[in-house]
Write a structure and sequence with these properties.
- The complex is a heterodimer.
- In chain A, 34% of the residues are buried.
- Chain A has four helices and no strands.
- Helices cover 47% and strands 0% of the residues of chain A.
- Chain A is globular.
- Chain B is α/β, with parallel strands linked by helices.
- Chain B is 27% helix and 27% strand.
- The chains are: A mainly alpha, B alpha/beta.
- At the A-B interface, helix 2 of A face helix 7, helix 8 and helix 11 of B.
Chain lengths: 89, 436
């Protein structure tokens, strides 16, 4: 199974309780942090914990790109599809 | 390692090959540090001589990595300048210091001048005030030196491994003292990059054996849920500050966590190391502070580091046996979110400065992760659709992401009660039940 950008948006919104954000208003390539959606570093940790629980993806110290995975919906989708286990629907 | 007061750092000096920092995977030596610092001092002396420009003496130090910050800090004080440490490096924050010099990147290194080695000057930390405007807290280098000496006397023996790594940034007093100034004075190398995300945390722990970990409840509570701590190199000592650490979160870290209680106004006040027993939840004052309580329970701190007059904290405290005390909670409308001091009046003032907004009030919404909720009365004709994101974007130029309201309610009137008071209870009621 692969996760889609729409599913990832719903996952982010549900995990972080972003009640003023809809999946439609969040761009696939929009930065999630700083000037984009405005998430903070603690949100990144929360998201990481939820991704680990749901999709078994894990950070590793020799993966210098791990911060890059959290840049946008698209990078997170690629990260999960490459390293995670997406449960079948 | 020889402990040197910061004021005497360059007068005494260290061996040229002594490691001062790890930056981008390589050791930075004392020789490089002294040259980088001398380069900053030379630039500050050259630029500071303009006639009648008092603010030329004031430098905003906005170096993003701790190594550059350390060199900038010591260089500016070699030139006798005032170091202004901004609360963050956001563009609108830096724009609030007109007429100041800005140090973002280190200038070319220069030859160290041992005869100019005394550091002196003042350091300004900026923090959220209670009245709606950020405020400056001025520290003399002597006060910072006094705190570093206290830390070394109390805890120095526990830092057996040398390297000092931190999950949080260095531009507030706790990060500055623990990640930069204390290591500099004690001759311990500091890790330049913060390690708050899991991958950089793993790399930081693997850099050198038994590092000292400078952290906060936000990180210490979450990292164990992202990483299997069992197999990881163990820090020699872990420090936490910015807010109380839950006993259950402290218990996840083998060897325990030393918690520091303090404020920008006073510096460090007290410490504790929880072990599950009731007594270990009490705080032990640092040896150089005198504590008392105001009639409303507010803790009052006196001592050289707190300044000429005793400082009233906005935390209520209860004295316990043996000079120790228990903390009972905040008394004012400045609160801590993930250890960041957030002033509700300041947020409200910023919201009301937006053209869409007539009135605004902000409240803390309890929950597993407490967040802010904003209640906003829009100006006539303004549409509520998308207004939350627009206002969040407006605030994001000046406030850190943690301080941005996450939930929004647009109402016709703010919920004043019969006595004309706007209570936190009435505001939080607008958000209904807390999320599970």
């Amino acid at each position: 199974m692969e996760i889609t950008p729409l599913e990832m948006k719903k996952f982010i919104i549900a995990t972080l309780g972003l009640e003023d954000v809809t999946p439609e208003s969040l761009g696939d390539d929009e930065p999630l942090f700083a000037e984009g959606l405005g998430l903070d570093s603690i949100d990144a940790l929360e998201l990481g914990i939820a991704l680990r629980k749901t999709y078994q993806v894990q950070a590793s110290g020799d993966d210098p790109g791990s911060r890059e995975h959290f840049r946008s919906v698209n990078t997170l989708v690629a990260f999960v599809n490459q390293h995670g286990a997406v449960p079948g629907s | 390692m020889t402990f040197l007061p910061l004021a005497q750092l360059f007068r005494a000096g260290r061996r040229p090959e002594h490691p001062v920092a790890w930056s981008a995977g390589a050791a930075r030596t004392w020789g490089e540090f002294a040259a980088a610092s001398a380069g900053v001092a030379a630039q500050a002396r050259t630029l500071g001589g303009e006639p009648g420009a008092g603010s030329a003496e004031r430098w905003v130090l906005a170096c993003e990595d701790a190594w550059a910050f350390a060199a900038g800090f010591s260089g500016l004080l070699q030139a006798g300048r005032t170091v202004v440490v901004p609360p963050n490096f956001l563009p609108e924050t830096l724009a609030r210091f007109p007429g100041h010099r800005l140090l973002r990147n280190l200038p070319a290194p220069a030859e160290a001048r041992p005869e100019a080695g005394i550091l002196e000057g003042r350091v300004e930390f900026w923090t959220s005030g209670t009245t709606g405007e950020p405020k400056a807290l001025v520290k003399t280098l002597a006060q910072l030196d006094a705190e570093v000496a206290v830390l070394e006397a109390l805890f120095g023996a526990r830092l057996t491994g040398g390297l000092v790594v931190g999950t949080l940034p260095h531009q507030h007093i706790y990060g500055c003292l623990f990640r930069v100034l204390w290591p500099l004075a004690a001759g311990r190398p500091l890790l330049s990059e913060p390690c708050g995300d899991p991958a950089s945390f793993l790399r930081a722990l693997a850099t050198m054996p038994a590092p000292a970990l400078i952290s906060s409840p936000a990180h210490l509570a979450r990292l164990p849920r992202l990483l299997d701590l069992e197999g990881l190199p163990r820090p020699a000592v872990i420090f936490s500050s910015g807010g109380p650490l839950e006993a259950a979160d402290a218990a996840q870290w083998a060897g325990g966590v030393v918690e520091i209680y303090g404020s920008t106004e006073t510096g460090g006040i007290a410490w504790r190391q929880q072990d599950g027993t009731p007594e270990a939840a009490f705080w032990t004052p640092f040896p150089d502070v005198a504590l008392s309580c105001d009639p409303d329970g507010a803790l009052v701190v006196a001592g050289f580091r707190a300044g000429p007059a005793p400082q009233r904290m906005e935390d209520a405290a209860e004295p316990m046996a043996g000079g120790r005390f228990r903390l009972l909670g905040r008394l004012d409308r400045t609160l801590k979110l993930e250890e960041k001091r957030v002033s509700l009046p300041e947020l409200e003032a910023a919201l009301q400065a937006h053209p869409l907004v007539a009135r605004a009030a902000v409240a803390l919404l309890p929950g597993p992760r407490p967040r802010l909720g904003a209640v906003v009365v829009l100006r006539d004709g303004a549409a509520t659709a998308g207004a939350g994101r627009e206002l969040r974007r407006h605030l994001a130029g000046r406030f850190e992401a943690v301080a941005l309201p996450r939930r929004w309610r647009f109402v016709a009137e703010l919920p004043y009660d019969g006595r004309g008071k706007l209570t936190a209870q009435a505001l939080t009621a607008l958000f209904g039940e807390a999320r599970p």
